[in-house]
Amino acid sequence: MNLKPNILEDRLIQFSVDVILISKKMDACFASEHLVKQLIRSATSAALNYGEARSGESSSDFLHKMKICLKELRESLVNLKIQKGASLMNDEMILSKLIQ
After folding, report:
1. What are the tens digits of pLDDT across the range 18-77?
2. Helix, strand, coil in percent for the chain, rounding step 5
3. Integer CA distances (angstroms), 37 to 14, 17, 63, 85, 92, in order
4. CA atoms within 13 Å, Cβ hemisphere of 14
5. Measuring CA to CA, which residue among 95, 97, 50 is closest to residue 73?
6. Which tens digits make up the pLDDT trace of 1-35?
7. What is the dihedral of CA 30, 32, 35, 39, to 10 degrees?
8. d(CA 37, CA 54)
9. Are 71 and 14 in contact (CB under 8 A)?
């Protein structure tokens, strides 16, 4: 899928917003709190780093920042799968949507 820069940025921002909103529906146990804090950091980092990448000073700077975005998105995906597997969220439908 080839997305225009503004569309990709909007999707990354929406992903961050959705993660923040879903965090309010997580259980209050230690594991959930630990994972949700890390999830918020990685999800929002992807969007923020993409903004940085768009103003990269060189092609290599752009690629480096895009690799960071991808790393943060992979971390977010694994985190969401762990939370789903451990049934740490009350609304699995929203969780499945984020995983997709």
Report:
1. 999 998 888 888 999 999 999 999 999 999 999 999 988 899 999 999 999 999 999 999
2. 80, 0, 20
3. 18, 14, 27, 18, 18
4. 8
5. 50
6. 677 878 999 999 999 999 999 988 888 889 999 99
7. -140
8. 26
9. no
0.85 surpassed by pTM: yes
Q: Looking at the chain, which runs of residues are DSSP E strands?
A: none
Tokens (6 digits) for 5:
């820069």
Tally the residues of the chain: 100
SS3 83: helix
